[in-house]
What we know:
2 domains, 0% strand
Amino acid sequence: MPSKLLGLPDEELAKRAGQVGGNECFAELFARHRKKVFYACRRFFPDSPAAEDATQETFLRAYRNIRTFNEGDFSGWLIRIAKNACIDEWRRRRREAVIDEIDLAEQPSPNRLDSACEARLMAERVWQEMRSLSPEQRRCLELKIEGFSYEETATRTGLTIGEVKSHIQNGRRMLWRRTEAVFAKS
């Protein structure tokens, strides 16, 4: 790595990376930020392969869009890309998830099977009702379910902490009203 790049700030490297022949500058940015991006993705995904995929996608998107970076905090810009890549990866994996098959060798009891089916149906009903919420309420609730704090949710969504709290509370209230009858039967 040329030593002349080591002393340059990220923002200058990003500017140079957007120019023809700026691959060395982007390589330096990658070297500086790869661990930070990986650990940010790792907080989103418990398994390393998914975090690695999201990290790779982050840098691919950053490379493709480096010309759109207009001054400011390069690290913050990159982490925003990482969060969006994580969300997209999570959605892709969720769509690909196959409903768990019952292990035929286990031979569950009928009561246990009924309970498992009821639980699955209830969960599907809640997710169905979540899709009918406003996009902000749904996204805030999804992030809350995934364990993100109000601050992290605000950062991911671009909302204020107060708006996040409001969307979560209103979303919970709407879900409760819409699913109350289903849960009362169980």
